[in-house]
From TrEMBL:
GO molecular function term, any single one: 5-amino-6-(5-phosphoribosylamino)uracil reductase activity
Signal peptide limits: none
Superkingdom as given in the UniProt entry: Bacteria
Domain Bacterial bifunctional deaminase-reductase C-terminal: 13-193
Pfam families the UniProt entry points to: RibD_C
Protein name: Bacterial bifunctional deaminase-reductase C-terminal domain-containing protein
Length: 210
């Protein structure tokens, strides 16, 4: 059985995703976080933003998150205090945006645009960087980095909803087989489940000669 684990590097990379129980990243007509974000989870998000990560994201996630961050900073935004703090706090965090369609300079503070190959750019960031790296949304980027063997941690927050009719963006479509070793878990607000793993990309089922 062939397999690949994350390459040794100075800066660890974590793929960080939110997901419905049936594997979707979002759902049509549902609010953000499926309307289930609570104070414990939002407080944890704010704390995570203070851990020194450099966030990696694609163009679509950049557009959505920069817009939400700007809205949260405005008066009468409709976001709760905890939601607003989690979103506006992203302005101060270093971000690397991979896109062939966006143009520099990017308007969201502390955002660097990379127009070349994302996998090679992240490989170089891992080799030379000293800050931990984490993805922000960006499903296709997450998939490419995992396939390339660059991911050190694979973290999910599972939301207790099934959106079989309205679900959008199936997270695992196009993924290889992956073995996961759990290294952390916890529950937020009595309903959201965090699961953190060390991933190993497999070339075939265990025991196969593929």
């Amino acid at each position: 059985m062939g397999e690949a684990t994350a390459e040794t590097s100075s800066a660890d990379l974590m793929v960080d995703l939110i997901i419905s129980l049936d594997g979707y990243a979002s759902a049509e007509g549902w609010p953000g976080w499926w309307g289930l974000e609570g104070p414990e989870y939002l407080g944890w998000l704010e704390q995570e933003g203070e851990k020194g990560y450099t966030f990696l994201l694609g163009a679509n996630t950049y557009r959505v998150m920069s817009s939400m961050s700007g809205e949260a900073a405005a008066e009468g935004s409709g976001f709760s205090k905890d939601e607003g703090a989690a979103l506006t706090g992203l302005e101060a965090v270093p971000k690397v945006v991979f896109s062939s369609t966006l143009q520099a300079p990017l308007t969201w503070p502390n955002s660097e645009l990379v127009t070349g190959d994302a996998v090679e750019a992240v490989r170089e960031l891992k080799r030379t960087g000293t800050r931990p790296l984490s993805t922000l949304g960006s499903l296709s980027l997450c998939r490419s980095l995992l396939v390339a063997g660059l991911v050190d941690r694979f973290r999910l927050v599972v939301f207790p909803v099934i959106t079989g009719r309205t679900g959008r963006e199936r997270i695992y479509d196009g993924y290889p087989d992956v073995a996961l070793e759990m290294v952390d878990s916890r529950t937020f607000d009595g309903r959201l489940q965090l699961l953190e793993y060390v991933p190993t990309v497999l070339n075939g089922p265990p025991g196969s000669q593929i």
